[in-house]
Every structure is written in C-alpha cells, then in structure tokens.
C-alpha cells in the first residue's frame, strides 16, 4: 500500500522545524508528498522541503531516508 499526500497551499510554512521533522519521519513510510503552491506567495521554504538542492534534514540533523517531497509552483504552469 502506497500513499500520496497532496497539499495545496497559498501561504508559507510557519513551523519549518516541525515540518522538516515530520517529513524526515514520513520518509520511512511508503508515501510521497506533492505540494502545489498557488498564488504569488514566497515559496522559498517549499523549495527547501523539496530536497532538490540538497538533502533535507530534521532540526536534529537526521537526513531523510529518501526524497519524498515534490514542490510545484502552479504559477509556472498556469497558461
């Protein structure tokens, strides 16, 4: 059984440490997280969660087991 969590957001992450911790924990489960950013907010933190620019780590320094997050800024594809 594999799960996909789809998150639609128009805002920024307000609890980055807790979010990173949750993603590291979730990386041990059979799941993927797709985050779609809608609107014109600053989605810089979402790029960090995506892990494309480096390994995402929990606040304690523990790395994700595997990259499970994909961030998509909807405005880049809205035509």
Automatic annotation (TrEMBL):
Pfam families: Copine (PF07002)
Domain of life: Eukaryota
Residue ranges of domain Copine C-terminal in the record: 2-79
Record's protein name: Copine C-terminal domain-containing protein
């Amino acid at each position: 059984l594999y799960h996909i969590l789809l998150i639609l957001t128009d805002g920024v992450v307000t609890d980055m440490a807790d979010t990173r911790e949750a993603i590291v924990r979730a990386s041990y489960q059979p799941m993927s997280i797709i985050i779609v950013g809608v609107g014109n907010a600053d989605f810089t933190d979402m790029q960090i969660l995506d892990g494309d620019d480096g390994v995402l780590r929990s606040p304690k320094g523990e790395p994700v087991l595997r990259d499970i997050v994909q961030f998509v800024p909807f405005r880049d594809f809205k035509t």
